[in-house]
Amino acid sequence: MISYIKGEVIKKGIDYLIIENNGIGYYINTSFNTLKNLSEGDFSSVFTYMHIREDILALYGFSKKDELEMFKKLISVNGIGPKAGLAVLSTYDVNSVKVAILKDDVNAISKVPGIGKKTASKIILDLKDKVGSIEEIDSINLSDIEVINDSVNNDIEDISKVLMTLGFSQLEAKKALENIDISEKTENQIIKEALKNLNK
To answer: Which among 123, 132, 31 is positioned nearest to 76, based on CA atoms?
Structure first.
């Protein structure tokens, strides 16, 4: 089992990165939150999880260990696979996921693409006793808990910067975002729609 990979970030995609270590390029599926924390050319460590099935061998990785641990908790829930786990962590940061679970916030979790209310309820039921307590989450402003549903940052400038890190010019990024309705959409959804516009 590979616990982590340390090396140079060679490429960033919409939901993956490639890290080179000793002449080998590792394709690592990852979350939008991790992609925001890394830039091409960075030398970084990524904590990894190897997903093995009969016909699948895939590597998942995160820049922070707590994100990896939350990913493993999410995919331990029956019916939640790695793609759904990544979707959760691409929509909310780890603390927001914990708070949503602890506050039984089905609406927040069901805003994740591909997660319905039934699945969100199952995540809450299965993980509520495994994510600690509100008191232990000292890096979140508890006065903001009620607005978890709106916590995804839809700031166009930040999204433009992400598109530029993927190799597009500032003008291309701006044009790709011009006609997108960003209301009720996560950053990940907006970026995917923008990439479709860029590839037309």
So the answer is: 123
Q: Which residues contact 19 (CB under 8 A, 6 or more apart)?
A: 5, 7, 8, 9, 10, 25, 26, 28, 44, 46, 61
pLDDT for 28: 95
Residues 101, 122 contacting (CB under 8 angstroms): no
- The model's pLDDT over 150-193, given as tens digits with 9 standing for 90+, comes to 444 445 666 777 777 677 777 787 778 777 766 566 677 787 78
- Output the CA–CA distances (angstroms, integers) from residue 85 to 32, 70, 98, in the order listed: 12, 9, 13
Q: How far is CA 41 from CA 8, 14, 20, 44, 48, in A?
A: 6, 17, 10, 9, 19
User: What is the predicted pLDDT for the residue at 52?
Assistant: 87
pTM of the model: 0.71
Separation CA 117–CA 89 (nearest Å): 17
Do residues 92 and 67 make contact, with C-beta atoms less than 8 angstroms apart? no
β strands within 13-143, DSSP E: 16-21, 24-29, 43-53, 56-62
